[in-house]
Amino acid sequence: MPGGPPGVIAITQVGDDKTVHTAGVADLATGEAPAMDDYMRVASVAKAFSGATALSLVDDNTMSLDDTIGTRLPTLPAAWADVTLRQLLSHTSGLPDFTEVRAFQEAAFASLETAPPPGMLLSYAYDQPLNFPPGSQYRYSNSDNIAVGLMIEATTGLGYEEALHKQVLDPLGLDSTTLPSGIELPEPALHGYDIDPPNAPTDVSTFMAAGWSWSSGGIVSTPNDLNAFIRGYVGGELFGSETQAEQTELFIPGGESGPPGPGTNSASLSLFRYDTSCGIVYGHTGNIPGYTQFAVASPDGSRSATMSMTLARNEGSLGQDLEVLRALQQAELAAICLILDGA
Among candidates 298, 292, 340, which has minimal Cα distance to 10? Predict the structure, then answer.
């Protein structure tokens, strides 16, 4: 469509029956079609990975959902001390979003290809007040999952990437999923683009170092791995039924990640529910320069759908940009209906 992405790939799977759907190209320079083993940036779906790591540690009693920032990360601002892991995972912490602070934005654009150590990311928001008393409201914040990653490190004594591998990537066999710190993106890649007619599309796949978003948005994966992750995450392969029940006990109406998924959205612990005309699925969305991501599964994980678009579009877009987002949401709904209504 006019103003649409150069490429899109979706995977739908019912039981062992997996189908790959593609349109357009993965790389405008080569004309190669998108493929399920192409590398890409998963954007904020990375928050589901950090949530999965934390919840698996809760499940084995290494962490508790009642752990506080003050206990695990005592050097962070005193105003944040009573914020719990549960509130971080549910985006009810009130932590100011470090990515919205001007000092962060200036620092990032001054050093796009080299990010600071993860422990410095939240420092850009240290002098910002809490958005609200912890636990009183929902507000999506990139700071939440940075704090989760730091709590994982402080609790386990491992680097977050090592804990991610041990708790999530290795158990699910996600051999093509990594957490880089720089701008690197292996080939073959699903290249992400910025489109601003009448200018030619600009490849922004390596626009910014992944370390600037770290545990909140830095993961590189493939459509195939993303599909396997969401099936295992939602389907209970990473933690037991008691922890899974805690995760899905309370969904906050209207809670959404960026961009919203189809149907009525609500939020729980690093998980979003999409109540659609064809049924309910759980998952996460994501948005980062060059990419819009969507990954969902049925409550038992046996039916899944992922969709990756090589263009960033979010709520708040105007004109044709918004039309592209609405078309994407219709395609996402079609994928959900296919996996829930299909044989």
Answer: 292
Alpha-carbon span 338 to 341, nearest angstrom: 5
**CB of 225 closer than 8 Å to CB of 179:** no
Q: What is the pLDDT of residues 262-283, one digit of tens each?
A: 999 999 999 999 999 999 999 9
Which tens digit of pLDDT belongs to each residue from 84-129? Answer: 999 999 999 999 999 999 999 999 999 999 999 999 999 999 999 9
Radius of gyration from C-alpha coordinates of the chain: 19
C-alpha–C-alpha distance, residues 46 and 63, integer Å: 20
- Cis peptide leading into 299, omega within 30 of 0? no
**Which of 140, 115, 87, 107 has the alpha carbon at shortest distance from 256?**
140
CA–CA distance, 153 with 82 (Å, rounded to integer): 19
**With b meaning 16 or more CB within 10 Å and e meaning fewer, what string describes 296-316?**
bbbbebebbbbbbbbbbbbee
Q: Is 183 exposed, middle or buried (0-12, 13-18, 19+ CB in 10 A)?
A: middle
CA distance 121 to 212: 7
| Cα(311)–Cα(71) distance, integer angstroms | 40
Amino acid at 179: L
Side-chain half-sphere CA neighbours of 34 within 13 A? 25
pLDDT band, residue 343 (cuts 50/70/90):
low
Pairwise CA distance, residues 56 & 192, whole Å: 32
DSSP, collapsed to helix, strand or coil, labels residue 22 as strand
Helices (H) and strands (E) in the chain, counts: 11, 12
CA 229 to chain centre: 12
Contact 291, 205 (CB under 8 A): no
pLDDT digits 0-9 by tens, 29-49: 999 999 999 999 999 999 999
The verdict on pTM exceeding 0.70 is: yes
Cα–Cα dist 240/202, whole Å: 44
Which residue, chain included where needed, has tokens 């357009």? 24
Return the closest-CA partner of residue 1 out of 257, 321, 251, 224.
321
